[in-house]
Amino acid sequence: MKKLGWSLLIFVFPIITLCTCSSGNGASNDEVDRKVDSLISLMTLDEKIGQLTLYANDLNPTGPQKTTFCENEISNGRVGGVFNVLGTDNVYRLQKQAVTNTRLRIPLLFGFDVIHGFRTIFPIPFAEACTWDPELIKKSATLAAKEATAWGLNWTFNPMVDIARDPRWGRVSEGSGEDIFLASLIAKAKVQGYQGDDLSAPYTMAACVKHFAAYGAPIGGRDYNTVDISERTLSEVYLPPYKAAVDAGVLSVMSSFNELDGMPCTANKKLLSQLLKDEWGFKGFVVSDWTSVKELTAHGIAKDEAHAAELALKAGLDMDMQSGIFSENLKKLVSNNLVDEQQIDNAVKRILRVKYLLGLFDNPYLYIDKKRQEEITASQEIMDLALLEAKKSIVLLKNENYSNSKLLPLKKNLRKIALIGPLASNRINLLGSWHGHADTSIVKTILESLSEKLPNTKIEYTQGASFTGTDKSGFNKAIQTVQKSEIVICVIGENNALSGEAASRSNIDIPGVQLDLLKELIKTGKPIVTIVMAGRPLILDWLEENLPAIIFTGQLGTRSGDAISAVLTGEYNPSGKLAMSFPRNVGQVPIFYNHKNTGRPFDAKDRYTSKYIDVSNEPLYPFGYGLSYTTFNYSDLVLDKQTISSTDTLKITFTLKNTGNFDGEETCQLYIRDMVASVTRPVKELKAFKKVYLKKGEQVIISFTLTANDLKFFNEDMIYQYEPGEFAVFVGGNSRDLIEEKFELL
Ligand code: BGC
């Protein structure tokens, strides 16, 4: 570039940049790289370090508030992005400071945890996963992005794709459950949903896959705790969903709080540089989790904050969230030759690239548009999709006969219903722990929705018990209400604070005295429908033994009331399938369907086999489980070949029949097992699924295909390959109740 005087440069350069770079997907990678390199060549070291610094707005903390976010820092060019800024006026004010007060006028990123919606809230991710519907989940991410971007935001800290096998961990609510295949499809769907086809459009935003890596496996299920898993488990179970997000083009990755094999992920070179950037070819940037750079000192690998900055940057971390440690230390580290400026340039390049792709250099105010905000926020389109997704997330766990017919759906001619429980007439706790900037005024309670749907039925509501504590003073009133009614609907479970970040529980029973309340209500002899709403699998063994009808819902968001009422009344036939196994007691945890066989697999007649002496090995409800008001029968499983070569396609067909009295949707699941391999393999692995809607009495032939690629695994040398031999194929409506055939790979 031609030499210009500084003052002229300050004035002219951004204009040149803004005008000539057609950013977003219109620009080729080379063109973006060229623009970024030319901008970096103009930057001072301080300005570069500024780009690597991310602060939270003081007003809306989502973690310990260690660094005071100071607006002057923006004007001084010492900030690359801000998060948790609410309201377009605030976004505008801060962006204006960045693009008018700083020398190079580099726009800011505005981040937020848009986890399952922003103003209109969709079901929590764990519930969304129970839809087994990646297309629908993609749409919900698209609409969440549409709403959030209209509020000035351009970067979401989502999807969280941490596989979770331990329901004590509070953050199972934010992920897609225990299965690798399902979680990987959802990871891809969400990235595509948020980022869309045109990142520079005003209604798409950069996604951030988190928490890299294996944050979902803390010892004892305790949040932030050490993770200690084998390389094989890491590669086979935990890494694939992050990889799926990277393959889908995710623009940022968040490093996790935990360590892996003795190395905290925020300073983990193997993970951030060798695997993510070199091997997987990730082109976006890596941001730390909240103060996780600073926490390298507590981990005991950094002697002070400067050392922490050095370790994190050298490992491949590009942006420091909230520690302020890059900002305070990198310059000195460069002058002391402890950090190479080229390394800083590499990080800056990755961040600026994303800013270009978002269209921020063309228009830093692209995402600020009050008119669009008014039109889009809680629009009919978003509210409708939130309802559809909420309905599809609902899992029917049990529905037994009560005086000769199933208790659910509710009979049409009911005169009196008792509605009991702390979630029956509650708004905020229907939204989950990360409910964005939810508009609670548009949330309808279950009481309100059910009353609308059943205008001729008297619905009497009593809370009965609260979420936590030991207070039973509401029991009597609840019992009296129940005694006057024909049927009881109890809506119990967890409130927002009982799951999510920093909400691990050692006891995953239904909290407080809610179960005691049920035990009292059952004594009245009235039929009870129990709706359990929670951010994680809970222990439901007593309910399963004693109650005729049980529904599980995660927190379903803004349209919870309407979705649950639609299922209760039969307007919607439930179709959700569990994305995690539900244990019988907490001692079974961790429990997951794709476990190994062991050398002494369970045998009831042989004491010296792998089992508990006080509880079965099986979960109460297996992965993939969920009933419908109708019933489905699987039969005639046929494989088109008994043997396949590595280039063949195996066609698997079976008949699915709707054998009940309702039209309904089934999620047909296909699992495989490698019977003998050079290393041990899981007893089942999900490889495909299909959602099928059948009218009552209807039957269809369904087909799946498998190729040798679907049979790959890491061998003893950690090479990803398939091996010849015998395989079992299973098909069914959950991971337990399956029909089976065998084939051989030559
Ligand atoms: C969480 C992240 C979140 C970040 C910003 C952290 O405490 O672990 O998931 O994105 O805060 O809110």
**Quaternary structure of the protein:** single chain
CATH architecture field of the domain at 386-588: 3-Layer(aba) Sandwich
Ligand catalogue? beta-D-glucopyranose
Full CATH superfamily name of the domain at 386-588: Glycoside hydrolase family 3 C-terminal domain
Residue runs with pLDDT of under 50 for 5 or more positions = 1-25
Q: What's the pLDDT, averaged over the residues?
A: 94
Strand content: 15-25%
Distance between the termini: 62 Å
Helix count? 21
Secondary-structure class: alpha/beta
What profile does the largest beta sheet have? 6 strands, mixed
CATH class of the domain at 386-588: Alpha Beta
What name does the CATH topology of the domain at 386-588 carry? Rossmann fold
Kindly state the number of beta strands: 28
Backbone CA Rg: 27 Å
The helical percent reads 25-40%
Strand order of the largest sheet: 11-18-17-16-14-15
Shape: globular
